[in-house]
Amino acid sequence: MNVRFLHAYGQSPEIRSWKSGALINFVITPLTTTKRLLPTLLAAVLHCGANAQVGTYSVGQTVDDFTVTDAHGNVHNLYSITAGGKHVMLDFFFVDCQPCQATQPYFNQLHEVYGCNGHDLFVLSINRGTDSNAQVDQYEATYGGSHAHGPAVAGQGGSAAVKTAFGISAYPTYCLIGPDNKLKNGDIWPVGSMQSLVHAFPAGSNILPAQCSLAGIDEIEQLTLDRLFPNPTTGTVAMDISLPRPGRVSLEVQDALGRLAYTQTPGRRGTGHFMHTLDLGALNNGHYTLRLLLDGIPSATRRLVVAH
């Protein structure tokens, strides 16, 4: 049984069960109340049907424009994204939602496999509006998996207004918007793998996997992460970074299992070389991968060893 939460203010969790393609909604109540309501619940099971989790738009209806700022300070405008011919998949979540935590790695895998928002598909996580940038960053670090993480918008970035505009009450809710700004799928569920999300692509949409990289070959060749020293390191490691264009720089360190062990955001940097230092003294001894991201896109990697 696939389960997710109804967690609007003042409401009880919702259990969503899929059986023979039908959606069954239960609100958790005290045992005595549940006994009294059992005949009603059984009737609901027999007569239940599809119930899209986007509550304010129907499939085929044009959704309103919105502008949000993600937890790293990047601004995203829906109509500007779709004007580039992209489909947009939204992920509505909150950090304590266990079904959200369980499916977040699949959403980030989709982000990386389909080009890190640089090609046919743009993915964006929208918090319900109660979590801060720091909490959303920690959520991604803990539950986001080993693939390149898509942008996530916290309450500080305007997520609550988007949640309200879409009428979201169950979490997670995944939905898909087309380049024509019309809702293509208002409730992508259940989600048991990345393919669950891929299967929601409309027929003929021509959303194709793509390389998760910078836009130009020349830029890739010019971007470097060099002179990683000392390596092995007892804790402090320095590096020489060269950027082909201005952008927001962030660094991630993954352990041998692909789990995020450390992250740091030096911030926006200009074109050219700069030196940077990381303090990895809190990491356990072992082999790690250092990833350089430019504007959220993984752009260079280096292996390093921590040996205290």
Give the key terms.
single chain, 308 residues, alpha+beta, Glutaredoxin, Immunoglobulin-like, 5-stranded mixed beta sheet, 4-stranded antiparallel beta sheet, 7 helices, globular
Describe the structure in your own words.
- With 308 residues, the chain is α+β, with helices and mostly antiparallel strands.
- It folds into three domains: 5-47, no CATH class; 67-198, Glutaredoxin; 217-306, Immunoglobulin-like.
- Helix content is 22%, strand content 34%.
- It has seven helices and 18 strands.
- It has helices at 31-47, 78-82, 98-113, 133-143, 159-166, 194-198, 217-222, and strands at 5-6, 14-19, 22-27, 67-69, 75-77, 87-93, 121-127, 152-153, 170-171, 173-177, 183-185, 224-229, 236-243, 247-254, 260-269, 272-279, 286-294, 297-306.
- The relative contact order is 0.14.
- Mean pLDDT is 81; it is low at 7-52 and 214-221.
